[in-house]
C-alpha cells in the first residue's frame, strides 16, 4: 500500500475533534428516551453511552443485551464487569420482546455477555429470545451479535435454527493482538464460527474490528481478507476508546482518511457492506445490513 498506517494515525494526546459528538436530539430519540426511562428498559445504547444512539434510535434501531451484565471472560478492551454471573432469568426473552414492542423498534440487535459457566453457553436463552421477539414483534427484523460459544456447533445450530436476518460475531482485533485484547478467545476459532454459520444457512454474516490498539495497516487488511475467505458479508471498523484506566490504553487515533481507505479496500474485496469510521460500532447502521 502506498500510504503507511503511520501517516494516518495520531498519537493519543487528548481526544481528536472527529471523535467529539453532539448530544442526541430529535423527536424519535426523545420519545424513545422517555419510554426507556418510564419502563426501566435496558439497552446497550444507553448503558454503553453509544455515540450513535440518537442516529440509530431515529432510524428505529436499538441494541439489547441478554444473559445478565457480568461476563465470564476478561477482555482487555471491554467495559462489562467480569466475575461470577447470576443465574439465568428464564423470563428474560419475554422481557426483551416486550421492550422492543413498547419502543416500537423496527430492527433489533441482540447481544450478550459470554456465559462459559453454563453447559449450553447461554445458547438456549439466545434462541428463546429470538422466538419471543418474533412472536410479539412479527415485523421486527433481527441481528444476533453472538459470543463464540467456544466454537461448539450444537450451540451455534440453535442460532441458525431461529434464523435471524443477520448473525454477527466480532473478531475485535488483528491476529497478533488477539491474545492480549481477547484473552480467552482465539482468532482462528472466531473465523471458524463465522465460516460455519455461513456454510450452514446463515442469511447474512457480519463481523467487526476495533483500531487503535497498536495494529498495523497490513494486519488490518489481512484480517479483512480472512473474513472474506470465511464468506462474511458485512464488516464494521471503528476506533477503540479506553473504557477506564484499568483497560488497554489507546495506542493511536486513526485518521478519517485511513478509515475511508479501509472502506474502499473492503468494498473492493467484495464485502456487501463496510462501515468504517471513528465512531462506528458493531450495530451502527445495522438496519441496512439485512439488505
Explain briefly what this protein structure is.
With 291 residues, the protein is α/β, with parallel strands linked by helices. It has helices at residues 27-39, 44-47, 53-58, 92-103, 123-136, 153-162, 178-181, 187-199, 217-229, 256-269, and strands at 9-10, 61-66, 70-71, 81-82, 107-112, 141-145, 166-168, 205-211, 234-239, 253-254, 273-276. The longest helix has 14 residues, at 123-136.
Largest sheet: 7 strands, parallel
Mean pLDDT: 89
Number of strands: 11
Could you give the order of the helices and strands? EHHHEEEHEHEHEHHEHEEHE
Q: Report the radius of gyration as a whole number of Å.
A: 18 Å
Question: Order of strands across the widest beta sheet?
Answer: 2-5-6-7-8-9-11
End-to-end gap: 31 Å
Amino acid at each position: 500500500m502506498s500510504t503507511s498506517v503511520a501517516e494516518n494515525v495520531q498519537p493519543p494526546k487528548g481526544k481528536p475533534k472527529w471523535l467529539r459528538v453532539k448530544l442526541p436530539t430529535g423527536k424519535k430519540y426523545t420519545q424513545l428516551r422517555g419510554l426507556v426511562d418510564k419502563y426501566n428498559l435496558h439497552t446497550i445504547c444507553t448503558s454503553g453511552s453509544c455515540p450513535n444512539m440518537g442516529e440509530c434510535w431515529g432510524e428505529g434501531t436499538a441494541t439489547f443485551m441478554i444473559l445478565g451484565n457480568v461476563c465470564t471472560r476478561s477482555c482487555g478492551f471491554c467495559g462489562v464487569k467480569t466475575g461470577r454471573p447470576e443465574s439465568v432469568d428464564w423470563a428474560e426473552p419475554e422481557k426483551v420482546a416486550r421492550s422492543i414492542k413498547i419502543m416500537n423498534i423496527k430492527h433489533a440487535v441482540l447481544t450478550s455477555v459470554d456465559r462459559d459457566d453454563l453447559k449450553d453457553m447461554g445458547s438456549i436463552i439466545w434462541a428463546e429470545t429470538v422466538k419471543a421477539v418474533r412472536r410479539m414483534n412479527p415485523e421486527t427484523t433481527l441481528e444476533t451479535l453472538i459470543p463464540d460459544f467456544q466454537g461448539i456447533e450444537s450451540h451455534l445450530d440453535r442460532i441458525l435454527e431461529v434464523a435471524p436476518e443477520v448473525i454477527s460475531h466480532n473478531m475485535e482485533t488483528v491476529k497478533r493482538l488477539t491474545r492480549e485484547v481477547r484473552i480467552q478467545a482465539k482468532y482462528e476459532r472466531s473465523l471458524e464460527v463465522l465460516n460455519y454459520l455461513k456454510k450452514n444457512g446463515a442469511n447474512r454474516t457480519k463481523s467487526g474490528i476495533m483500531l487503535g490498539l497498536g495494529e498495523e495497516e497490513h494486519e488490518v487488511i489481512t484480517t479483512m481478507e480472512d473474513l472474506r475467505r470465511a464468506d462474511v458479508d458485512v464488516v464494521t471498523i471503528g476506533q477503540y476508546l479506553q473504557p477506564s484506566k484499568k483497560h488497554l490504553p489507546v495506542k493511536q487515533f486513526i485518521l478519517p482518511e485511513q478509515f475511508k481507505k479501509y472502506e474502499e479496500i473492503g468494498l473492493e474485496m467484495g464485502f456487501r457492506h463496510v462501515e468504517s469510521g471513528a465512531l462506528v460500532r458493531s450495530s451502527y447502521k445495522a438496519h441496512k445490513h439485512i439488505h
